[in-house]
Amino acid sequence: MAKIDPTARIEPGAVIGQNASIGPYCVIGAHVEIGDGCKLLAHVHIAGHTTIGPRTVIYPFASLGTPPQSVKYRGGPTRLAIGADCDIRENVTVNTGTEDDRGITEIGDHCFLMAGSHVAHDCKVGNHVVMANNAVLGGHASVGDSCFLGGQAAVRQFVRIGEGAMIVGLSGIRADIIPWGMAQGPLANLVGLNVVGLRRRGFAKAEVHRLRAAYKDLFLGAGAFRDRLARVEQAYAGVPLIESVFAFIRDGKRPLSTAIRRGGDGATEDQ
């Protein structure tokens, strides 16, 4: 049975799951579904057509499912879906989608959104994503599984961030970031690979070394990028980890972040 503080305001039509806990002064709209075992600590505001997955914990003054901050939004019943086992900290804001995209903002399972972070309308965030304090996503951005966005990182609208990428704090992401890339800077460039993330995901040392070699050939080699891409694709055909990077690049419709040399060879300190 759900535990609901008497000061909470829950509009008729809202669905509260078994064993959920709704703390003091929370406000839950009529079209909200709260999963089993969720915890809303205090002063949480959830509006719109919003679904919160089981066991997600939401801290004070988070505001979820409010209308998109878009001048094109026309008031339609767009949605927000947040997965299971997420940790959403103080003052996090997440908006619903708009009619001009898929109509939904999505956040996967086991995500950690630290205080003050923001996910804008129509974004798609994968599983096991960490957004540190005050990291923000512009509208229509997508973030792959197991990414990490450092504090006060800002991602431009429509940008894609590939699986396992790491965005260093205070970086401004203006173009797509390849899977497992590490980006840094006010107008962020690639500075290497997220080797720590690769190891934590269980990739063997040999796989990481091959990806590192492919990265250097592709981003730091001689000649035009188009020619390098064709050459590297052929050289590493049949290697799943590297082919996932090629697929990401080929699927892109917007600019791709380029690389700069770091430590003399484009490697990160973690490599």
Description:
It is a single chain. The protein has 271 residues and is an alpha/beta fold. 17% of the residues lie in helices and 26% in strands. It has four helices and 28 strands. It has helices at 195-200, 205-220, 225-235, 240-251, and strands at 3-4, 9-10, 15-16, 21-22, 27-28, 32-34, 39-40, 45-46, 49-52, 57-58, 63-66, 79-82, 87-88, 93-95, 104-107, 112-113, 118-119, 124-125, 130-131, 136-137, 142-143, 148-149, 154-155, 160-161, 166-167, 172-173, 181-184, 189-193. The protein has an eleven-stranded mixed β-sheet with strand order 1-4-7-10-13-16-19-22-25-27-28, with no helix packed on it. It has a nine-stranded parallel β-sheet with strand order 2-5-8-11-14-17-20-23-26, with no helix packed on it. α2 runs antiparallel to α3 (225-235). The radius of gyration is 20 Å and the shape is elongated. The protein starts with a strand and ends in a 20-residue tail after the last helix. The model is unreliable at 264-271 (pLDDT under 50).
